[in-house]
Amino acid sequence: MTIVFDTLAKIAFFFVLIMGLVVVLIWMERKGAAFIQDRTGPNRASIGGVRLAGLVHPVADVFKLLFKEDITPDNRHKALYNMAPWLVMTVALSTYAVIPFGDFLTVAGRRVPLVVADLNVGLLYILAVASLATYGVVMAGWAANNKFTFLGGIRATSQMISYEISMGLALMGLVLVFSSLRLTDIVAGQGDLVLGFLPKWGVVVQPLGFILFIVAVFAETNRNPFDLPEGESEIVAGYHLEYSSMKFALFFMAEYAHMVIGASLIATFYFGGYQIPWLPRPLIEAHAGLILTLKLIGVAIAALLIAMLFFRRVQKEKGKFGDARDREPVIGAGLWALISLGALAGLALKPWAIGPVGAEMVASLFQIMAFVAKVVFFAWLFIWVRWTLPRFRYDQLMHLGWKVWLPLGLANLVVTALVMAIV
Amino acid sequence: MSFEGLPKGSGDKNRSFLESIYLWEVVRGLRVTAGHLIRNILHTDDMPTMQYPEEKRVYGDRFRGRHRLMQRDDGSAKCVACQMCSTYCPADCIEIVGAEHPDPKIEKYPLTFEIDLLRCVYCGLCEEACPCDAIRLDTGIYEIAADSREKFVVDKEFLLNNDTDGTL
Amino acid sequence: MAKLTIDGKEIEVPDGTSLFDACRDARGEALPHFCYHPDLSIAGVCRLCQVEVEGMPKLTIACNTGVRDGMVVHTRNERVTRASTQILEMHLINHPVDCPICDQAGECGLQDQYMKYGLYDAEVEMDDKVNKAKAQVIGPHVILDKERCVLCTRCVRFCDEVTGTGELGIFNRGNRAEIGTAPGVELDNNYSMNTVDICPVGALTGRDFRFQKRVWMLKAASSICPGCATGCNVRIDHEAGRIYRLKPRYNPEVNGRWMCDKGRLTYKAVHEDGRLGEPMVAGQPGNWAGVSGAVADLGAKEGFGLAVASPHLSLEEMYLLKKLAGEAPVHGGLTDADRGEKDKLLLDADRTPNRRGLGLLEIGQGDGSALAAVIKGVTGPILIHGGDPAADPAVTEALSGRDVVYIGTHENATSALAAVVLPGAMWAEKAGIFVNRDGRLQEFRQAVARHGNAREDWRILAELLNVGGKEDAPGSLKAVRAGLTSSIDPGTDLNQLPERGFVPGGEVR
After folding, report:
1. CB within 8 Å: A40 and B34
2. How far is the CA of B125 from the CAs of A48, B94, C487, in angstroms?
3. Under an 8 A CB cutoff, do C134 and B105 touch?
4. What is the dihedral sign for C-alpha A358, A360, A363, A368?
């Protein structure tokens, strides 16, 4: 019974994490794209005059899409057409089952491993489930009965087939190094050091594998520079062209959910997952009190600085808009000042004198935070790359996949195997 | 595969090793975009974007905005319904119905004068064609909005007193 | 024959030809002129057609000079063009130049001549011009603007010579001279609107067309006036599905360059209220898909008992109607509205355009009482095509209790009592052939779109032919005409009637 409860709690954690990240990522995408292109980006939607630098826009978009008319083509294949968005979304979410987001958490005397399902073939599971997402895309492209969506579906399939292989080969090298298909083992193995000073992260022991993998992940998530299934300049919007309203929103959210998976996989396989470099768990537990105290002070100072920035805006932009938006910097300054005060108030609880149970909790919390921070960074990398690189041509994509990535992956596997055999 | 139409220097052979493996170029590209990103985060105010409803671009005096009909001293339209404008109009957006004016010195006046602002291309040929300076595009109004197509067809009364904001 | 040289070109014309006509032949275009009109006497008042004849000391007006053997004429040298420009400038001295509000703009002699021979800078200020009365109503159809007049006297000569009514004249002298009517006299004859046509400027404008449309926006379709048996050739000026005016089309065999005012206003019926736009079955609006069934329900599968043809139908429709009736009698129904007063010029007492067509197809005719007798003598459904036979009480009485299918254009007494009403096309909305009082077959063409869901009559008749299952219904008007050609054998292909019509068996004037 407790296992069921624990599992549900962990699923809920991932669900909240992904959905929250999707909203944040959409915001990051739009605002980041705008800043990269010297624009201001979304800054109009507001709640009572508070615009949160555009963060209200994704929320407004959700409401807009919910209330929009669902326009469907007449000659669609009804069942497949309705199933496709759900399949894409479901597959995106189910990949998380085997990703560890922390070591363990002791709750009421029980050690709860921080992974939904600790499969011994977790890596195979990920490869299997991730490739299912293509089915959703192909179904959407086929069922809408439109030549552009169909072309998008075909592109998605062949792209997926091409890069699934090099992705698998890249991971094989990793499996050889860590001698396990179980993701918790792989992450745990990355907590060690190599040569005494380098963290034994996947990127350190498998640099070529990392490059192969990250490119393959970009291709698998259909993100620029590999977003040919959407290819709006040639095939309008590709596979989701005929979808509108909430069905379109599902595709849209699934794209960002895929980004989060991609980022999680990169973090898990090549950047130590939840591991904090040079700070193994026993060390954190031993000095939990000190770390927590420093952290609180750091938060207090940072929040104070932000509050001061807002205060500067209060003085500078007095009555700029002449409406509710003028209150925005005032609220911001007050809020960050409160956070700063709250962090200082936390010092009154004497965090330096934390007990052993608390120390364990702190260690788990830090590990989860490290994992989330890595995921957010790599998700940002997806966005960053999208607004930097132009899209590949289709023949270039295929050339890269079959003639460059596949031989490189094989070579990487052979070299790794030889090294492992010798060492 | 050969790319004969491409300019010199863009072929595979002329690339350096770093360029041909592409990855380093990707990193350089990321550096450029990150530079823009950081600069714009730190100097939000310097962005060239104009915050439109609050800030408005100032156009020159000769800017062609929404049309207006000129008035005689008594407030009636100067237009004599000669339909030179609707003849000349490349978008065919002007619809005039002439009628007999009680004053034989004026003789003809526009019973209705309608402009379909959605069809209009704001070329200003109507004011060029007008023999009696009855129509001008000098209001400077360029924000033209309405919630139905019918409202974009504006009538004589509207054009005679055309000093509202963009809303129709 | 006289041989003369015009602008270095040798030309031979019959003796007695005016120099004006000879110059037109030689140049390919007419000399500039206002007062000259081929159907009116020579006035020689506009002085615009001056040419240089070698041996004559001064320039001479071509319209009033006869040709002489060995004449050497110059029409384009500097002396002549300077004279034309100066004369034109003189005509324009007191012209108000109010082209924007002038209906003539676009077909104005002054505008055309100025662009061709004028192009000088005016020396007379607007304020110095002599002002005269504007927009004077001088008759039921015509408005006079005295300022615009160039005193060419075409209208005066028309009223004197063609109609013989003489309402118009020139009053006062010098720059005060103006066209006008005597006190108490109105320009009120049945041909008054021809003065609007011949006026080279905007002095005379038609009240009906005034300010309705600028002339350059109009499109033209050639047609035949449906007003009477004369069959005047007309041009329908229309735009965006609306007819704006009828103008006479030159046909020396029928109407010359004139037509009557009554005929000019016949187009009004096309845009009248009360047009039939939807098929009606038992008084309820239906659609064309249900028409065949409704007509078959009346028993028309076995054929109609009687077909009544109106003399307003085209020849093709009469032919199809006869075919549809088969063995059953076809009757040409005349009503009181089809007769009127005859005048001495063009208007005929027979106010139907195609009664000769009934004769050509050997369809018997008769008035209301005759029709009532025929109706009483037949059984089965009755098809009435065109006209309004039930306006006659005798016919109404005879038709009571009978199944009537009516093909018509307007709501009237017949459409009220018909079981099935099918909307047909007015003459301007379809093509066809009328036979005029001289037996001349003349073609009219479609000008505007049909009202509502109305159909071309021959299509309706073809559909009814299908209901009866009689024989292959024709699929095009061309096919109908081909059938008609072989049926009456007029001696020509009716699909290729000449522009000025065709009289079977030769011209019989």
Report:
1. no
2. 47, 12, 58
3. yes
4. negative
pTM value is 0.70
Q: Distance between CA atoms of B62 and A179, rounded to whole angstroms?
A: 77
Indicate yes or no: CB of B98 within 8 angstroms of CB of C216.
no
pLDDT in tens, B131-157: 989 999 888 888 888 889 998 999 898
Q: Are C66 and C60 in contact (CB under 8 A)?
A: no
Q: What is the mean pLDDT of residues C331-335?
A: 85
Q: Which residue has the tokens 């500039």?
A: C32
Least CB-CB distance to B83: which of C134, C135, C214?
C214
What are the two backbone dihedrals, phi and then psi, of residue B154, each rounded to the nearest 5 degrees? -100, 145
Which sequence spans correspond to the domains of chain C?
A: 2-91, 126-270, 274-496
**pLDDT of amino acid B165:** 58
Q: Say yes or no: ipTM exceeds 0.90.
A: no
Give the whole-angstrom CA distance, residue A317 versus residue A321: 9
Helices marked H in C335-468 — which ranges? Answer: 355-360, 368-376, 393-399, 413-417, 457-468
Q: Are strands A110-113 and A104-107 parallel, antiparallel or unpaired?
A: antiparallel
Q: How close B115 gets to chain A, by Cα (Å)? A: 33
B33 and A38 within 8 Å at the Cβ level: the answer is no
Residue C506 C-alpha from the chain's centroid: 24
Chains in contact with C via at least 3 Cβ–Cβ pairs below 8 Å? B
CB contact under 8 A, B87 and C217: yes
Identity at C41, one-letter amino acid code: S
d(CA C306, CA C380): 8
Contact call for residues C441 and C433 (beta carbons, < 8 A): yes
Q: Provide CATH code, domain C2-91.
A: 3.10.20.740
Strand pairing category for C404-408 and C382-385: parallel
Phi, psi of A206 (to 5 degrees): -135, 60
CA distance linking residue A209 with residue A226, whole number of Å: 19
What's the burial of B12, exposed, middle or buried (CB within 10 Å: 0-12/13-18/19+)?
exposed
Q: Which residue has the tokens 């010029």?
A: C345
Give me the pLDDT at residue B1, please: 46
Please check the confidence at residue B4 and state whether its pLDDT lies above 70.
no
The listed CATH number (3.40.50.300, 3.40.50.2000, 3.30.70.20, 3.40.50.740) that belongs to domain C274-496: 3.40.50.740
Q: Distances in Å between the alpha carbon of C311 and those of C77, C314, C422?
A: 58, 8, 18
Q: Is some CB atom of chain B closer than 8 A to the CB atom of A86?
A: no
Supply A71's token pair: 């326009």
Residue A373: which residues within 8 A CB-CB, separation 6 or more? none
Residue whose structure tokens are 């001064």? C58
Nearest-CA distance B96 → chain C (Å) = 9
Confidence of residue C509 (pLDDT cuts 50, 70, 90): very low
Longest CA–CA span in chain B (Å) reads: 88
Backbone angles phi, psi at C434, to 5 degrees: -110, 150
Q: How far apart (Å, rounded) are the C-alpha atoms in residues C442 and C357?
A: 11
Nearest CB to A40 within list B33, B47, B54: B47
B108 contacts in chain C (CB < 8 Å): 101, 211
Q: Do chains B and C touch (3 or more CB pairs under 8 A)?
A: yes
Classified by CATH at the fold level, domain C126-270 comes out as Alpha-Beta Plaits (3.30.70)
- Whether the CB of B29 is below 8 Å from some CB of chain A: the reply is yes
Chain B contact for C413 (CB, 8 A cutoff): no
Are B47 and A387 an interchain contact pair (Cβ–Cβ within 8 Å)? no
Q: Cβ atoms within 10 A of the Cβ of B42, count?
A: 8
Task: Report helix, strand or coil for A400.
Answer: helix
Measured CA to CA, the distance from residue A48 to residue A198 in angstroms comes to 50
CB contact, 8 Å: B40 with chain A? yes
Candidates B32, B37, B51; nearest CB to A32: B37
Check residue B110 and give its pLDDT.
92
